[in-house]
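note to self — DONT lose this again. spent like an hour looking for the file last time. sequence + predicted structure for the chain T wanted, 235 res
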Amino acid sequence: MSTSSKSAPFPVPPFARACIDAAAGAWGASFGHPFIVALREGSLAPERFRFYQMQDARYLEAFSDASVLISTRCTSPADKLWFIDAARIALVTEGELHAGYGKTLGYGPTDIATLELTPTNRAYQDHMISTALRGSLVEAVAALTPCPWLYIDLGQHLLETLRTIPDGHPYAAWLRMYSDPQFNSFMEQLLERLQRFADGADAAARERATVAFVTSARYEWMFWDQAWTSQAWPV
């Protein structure tokens, strides 16, 4: 079960609470996915983690693009800078994690650049980018929010379950990054903006934003699943 369904280590404003309640089924399903269970136990096959990491590296490029697109739509310089920083975190901070695993799992920047996206990855990226381009500001931010929120929720839940992360755990670096409480401040600031943009939108836009949030939460579950099954194009 998601820790966010109970309490969160950062404030969850009303609109974010409504979004996560609407996405409860998809959200909770990620916690029990066999990929996540095996990741926690350290029994996840390296080839599955490699598949996931390489696809995730390409996904983060789209997350960064969507963040920058959102920044161009913000009227406040502080909001513009915040989303530009979010784009940088996706490429730099999380990129360092990918680079580290690339050395041990045998992939590098060229492999990532030439990687064929899975159907799930391409669809998720298209959802984020199209919403950032054509949706209202609250829809654009809602589509972006589940990724960092779910990873923080998962990371802190897994740490609570494990109690400690052994140095010898094969995925210790991943677990330590996403369980780090430093991300709580990031989420607090993101959800504050989501609420502010929701307050400035009409009811129809808020409803579309909720749908965008739920769609992204579903894609997050599908992202674990595409790595677990080594998803490929059927034709």
